[in-house]
Amino acid sequence: MIGRLAGVILHRAMDHVMIDVRGVGYIVYVSARTAQSLPPVGEACALYTDLLVREDLLQLFGFQSLYEKEWHRLLTSVQGIGAKASLAILGTLGPEGLGRAIALGDWAAVKSAPGVGPKLAQRVVMELKDKAPTVMAMGGALTVDAAPSDELIEPAPKPRTRPAAAPKVNFTAEALSALTNLGYAPAEAAAAVAEASENPEATDTAKLIRAALRLLAPKD
């Protein structure tokens, strides 16, 4: 199983990229969102990958974080969602947006992805609503970027020095974990956190938790 590739970009397209790894060019299919964020031809990149194996076909699909890859795994477990449909959904919503849509039962957001009809979008929400909270809670540990490995990459001509990216903070995952530790059901907590994350004042974990708790408080 090929789980990660690190090399130099030889070619970029709207739905795939060719990465040179020690003289071997790997074609990796990616979402539109990932394609737009990759560096230009000649620069180093790395992607987590999922290998699709069929009798007459081998295809690699690439993701910038383990969190996105885990959502891809869940999406493709839904009947009618193949790898290309999964990339379309992730390219439209992103992993965080997808988690929020499923937690809120917002199948219309899923339907906004190219090639996804209403029945399929509803199936995604229904089949993943109980699994989504677990992945959302793991988000903080799964958002590690697939940073290029200097040991595997031949330097490109006149390489540019790029500053290391600052670590990402996943307030949603931390808040969800806190609420489930307080005894709320995972699905109930996920829906509250997803709705609370739309509040512009929820700028850190503590504020997000307070906003979610207000939503979960019994209504008079």
From TrEMBL:
Subcellular location: Cytoplasm
Annotated spans, Domain I: 1-64
Record flagged with keyword Chaperone: no
Keywords assigned: ATP-binding, Cytoplasm, DNA damage, DNA recombination, DNA repair, DNA-binding, Helicase, Hydrolase, Nucleotide-binding
Gene Ontology annotations for the cellular component aspect, listed alphabetically: cytoplasm; Holliday junction helicase complex; Holliday junction resolvase complex
Example of a GO MF term: ATP binding
InterPro entries: DNA_helicase_Holl-junc_RuvA_I (IPR013849), NA-bd_OB-fold (IPR012340), RuvA (IPR000085), RuvA_2-like (IPR010994), RuvA_C (IPR011114), RuvA_C_sf (IPR036267)
Region ranges (Flexible linker): 156-168
GO BP term, pick one: DNA recombination
Region described as Domain III: 169-220
Domain of life: Bacteria
Sequence ranges assigned to domain DNA helicase Holliday junction RuvA type in this UniProt record: 1-62
Domain Holliday junction DNA helicase RuvA C-terminal stretches: 172-217
UniProt note: domains: Has three domains with a flexible linker between the domains II and III and assumes an 'L' shape. Domain III is highly mobile and contacts RuvB.
Family that this chain belongs to: Belongs to the RuvA family.
Subunit structure: Homotetramer. Forms an RuvA(8)-RuvB(12)-Holliday junction (HJ) complex. HJ DNA is sandwiched between 2 RuvA tetramers; dsDNA enters through RuvA and exits via RuvB. An RuvB hexamer assembles on each DNA strand where it exits the tetramer. Each RuvB hexamer is contacted by two RuvA subunits (via domain III) on 2 adjacent RuvB subunits; this complex drives branch migration. In the full resolvosome a probable DNA-RuvA(4)-RuvB(12)-RuvC(2) complex forms which resolves the HJ.
Function recorded in the entry: The RuvA-RuvB-RuvC complex processes Holliday junction (HJ) DNA during genetic recombination and DNA repair, while the RuvA-RuvB complex plays an important role in the rescue of blocked DNA replication forks via replication fork reversal (RFR). RuvA specifically binds to HJ cruciform DNA, conferring on it an open structure. The RuvB hexamer acts as an ATP-dependent pump, pulling dsDNA into and through the RuvAB complex. HJ branch migration allows RuvC to scan DNA until it finds its consensus sequence, where it cleaves and resolves the cruciform DNA.
Protein's name according to its UniProt entry: Holliday junction branch migration complex subunit RuvA
Organism annotation: Rhodobacter xanthinilyticus
